[in-house]
Amino acid sequence: MTIDPSNMKRLFSLLILIMAFWGVKAQELQVQVTINTPKLQTTAPEVFETLETAIEEFMNNQKWTSEVFEQEERIGLSLVLTISKELSTNTFEGELSLQSIRPVFGSTYNTPMFKHLDKDVVFTYEQFQPLEFSQTNYLNNLTSILGYYAYIVLGMDFDSFSPFGGEPYFQMAQDIVNRIPPNVAGSVPGWRSTEGNRNRYWLIENILSPRCRPFRQAIYDYHRQGLDIMHENPAAGRAVIAEALDALNDVNRSYPNSMILQVFANTKSDEIIEIFKAAPPQEKTKIVQTMSRIDPPRASNYRQQIGR
After folding, report:
1. Closest CA to 83 of 37, 42, 127
2. Does the global pTM surpass 0.85?
3. Are 295 and 247 in contact (CB under 8 A)?
4. What kind and span of H or E run contains 172?
5. Where are the domains of the chain?
């Protein structure tokens, strides 16, 4: 059988185009969604089954960046949406739990990157309603919340691989906050500075604040210079992590009671305990002191589990 060389060339070119197309379309997030409805009595369960699938497809199929991700590079993210109230036949109130992970170089371990519970989730949804999102316009509260956290997760992940690498994604999260119409911000919680200091407004404010700039450098040092070398030199990696935590203590002094440090402690406390259990006594004492300042509610936990 003889194959025309010109046909082979065209076929090869077509294959290259197809591969390039799929490479460009590779998505960034690998999201698993669970919706719990423990207290609802009116809305049919099928509505939330449909919504669960819709959110998963929305998060996984949306192109959030211009970067090309390989399948194994996608960022793992778990979302648990717990619906607590039916405000009307199609308006719901609840809370959203998020946890993203990042692989650690030279190991099978995945480190938690962002763990957070947002208690200010109010949205309207009709079964089979398409979830639409715009990076330039406000469309609805549900996809604004989801898009906001997609960019927070991306920003944290990129910051862990290069210093301040997450800046464009944090700016996109800030843009979402800025685009919330005043009448929406006034009618649903989570977007305003006047609602305390533990909401979506304050999370991105903290991340982009000059006072928290050392926090973001510490995220890079902790992960890329610390965790990622522990497979070959645990003591050196642990020392870098200790220095990164010292930097967070400095942030704690310059920006007391900041939300981002609370989020960090919620995300990393168990991991930090495991890392420093094997440290020398002097190192243990120092890290217990540091973490007790950064994360006072868990001070006794650090003392008991890390030891002195």
Report:
1. 37
2. yes
3. no
4. helix 167-179
5. 28-208, 221-308
> Does residue 191 register a pLDDT over 90?
yes
Dihedral sign from CA coordinates of 137, 143, 145, 151 = negative
CA distance 117 to 49: 21
Residue 34: the pLDDT is 98
Name 94's bridge partners: 83, 121
DSSP string for residues in 105-164: TTSS-EEEEEEEEEEEEEEE--TT------SSS---HHHHHHHHHHHHHHHHHHHHHSTT
Rg for the chain, CA atoms, rounded: 22
Q: Could you give the 3-state DSSP secondary structure of residue 185?
A: helix
121-174 pLDDT, tens per residue? Answer: 999 999 999 999 999 999 999 999 999 999 999 999 999 999 999 999 999 999
pLDDT at 69: 87
Residue 307 has what pLDDT?
81
What one-character-per-residue DSSP string does 207-246 give?
A: HH-GGGHHHHHHHHIIIIIIGGGTTT-HHHHHHHHHHHHH
